[in-house]
């Protein structure tokens, strides 16, 4: 299975702007720019999208972990806070901090901790954040 997103950018890094589109259509020419990334202009940014992906992936992975262990959550609510920090002349994403609040009837703390830790370590987005990246670049 392959999921795709497409980015288009016009202009310089600080004064330019772009749009993000996903194959599903959830994002369709959604604006992003320096101002949506580093200031508070309306639009999105890569870190926000990574945070959404990580929160969603982890929460679904935990739901599967709980199901396999015989538990049904009433609610799993996860926030992912992705940090973008200075790195020399540029920036780096330094961490993704997950905060989970869960309601799971009949589950004790030790088992909850085990399942949550396993979901964090094994959800595909957590693995990606620790994985290598490939690039195929062509100048037309």
TrEMBL record:
Note one Pfam family from the annotation: OsmC
SUPFAM superfamilies, alphabetized: OsmC-like (SSF82784)
Write down the Gene3D superfamilies for this protein, in alphabetical order.
3.30.300.20
Q: Name one GO molecular function term.
A: peroxidase activity
One GO biological-process annotation of the entry reads: response to oxidative stress
Q: What protein name does the entry list?
A: OsmC family peroxiredoxin
């Amino acid at each position: 299975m392959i999921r795709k997103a497409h980015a288009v950018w016009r202009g310089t890094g600080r004064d330019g702007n772009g749009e993000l589109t996903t194959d599903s259509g959830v994002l369709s020419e959604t604006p992003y720019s320096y101002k949506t990334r580093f200031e508070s202009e309306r639009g999105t940014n890569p870190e926000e999208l990574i945070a959404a992906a990580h929160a969603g992936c982890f929460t679904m992975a935990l739901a599967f972990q709980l199901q396999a262990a015989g538990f049904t959550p009433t609610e799993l609510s996860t926030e992912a806070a992705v940090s973008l920090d200075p790195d020399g002349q540029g920036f780096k994403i330094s961490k993704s901090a997950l905060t989970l609040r869960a309601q799971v009837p009949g589950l004790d703390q030790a088992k909850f901790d085990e399942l949550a830790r396993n979901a964090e370590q094994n959800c595909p987005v957590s693995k990606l954040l620790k994985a290598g990246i490939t690039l195929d670049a062509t100048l037309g």
